[in-house]
Design a protein that fits this description.
This protein has one domain: Hcp1-like (Pnp Oxidase, Chain A, Roll), CATH 2.30.110.20. The strands form 2 sheets. Strands 1, 2, 3, 6, 7, 8, 9 and 10 form an 8-stranded antiparallel sheet that branches. Strands 4-5 form a two-stranded antiparallel sheet. It is 6% helix and 52% strand. The chain contains 1 helix and 10 strands. The chain is mainly β.
Length: 143
């Protein structure tokens, strides 16, 4: 029986089309929800019909310390000023040895929010940045 090491120490590599945005140490909001519509049937008091209607994808929040890759994020966002173009994206969860644990391919990716570091000499701490992206769903592996 082979034991698979759980993903304890993980970083998240992010790629938008052919542009690598580098590694992030936090990834939140990777998920979806099936929206259910409810219909009541006259004379049926035992239950309410529930029908799946659409899938909602939450925004994804990526956080990391500021690095040289931070310039790639700001360049990507600055390129949106001439018009928003949805891209494909990939988030790869990786162990510290570089092996990929899991991968999520996303369609219709756009940046929603970027917040840079708070620079204050009175409170020295690691300068971090946060990138929030929206998407239209998951693509099959290999696309």
């Amino acid at each position: 029986m082979e034991f698979e090491d759980p993903a304890v120490s993980v970083c998240f590599m992010v790629q938008i089309d052919d542009l690598s945005l580098g590694a992030f140490n936090s990834c939140e909001g990777l998920g979806c929800e099936v929206v259910m519509e409810q219909r009541e049937e006259g004379g049926n008091n035992g239950f309410v019909w529930q029908f799946p209607s659409r899938i909602k994808y939450s925004t994804i929040k990526l956080t990391r310390p500021v690095t040289r890759d931070s310039m790639r994020v700001t360049r990507w966002i600055a390129g949106m000023t001439s018009g928003v173009t949805r891209k494909t994206g990939r988030i790869s969860a990786m162990r510290m040895d570089g092996s990929v644990i899991a991968c999520w391919n996303l369609m219709g990716v756009v940046p929603v929010r970027w917040s840079g570091p708070s620079l204050n000499l009175d409170t020295p701490k690691v300068a971090t940045e946060t990138l929030e992206i929206a998407h239209h769903g998951f693509l099959e592996a290999g696309r």
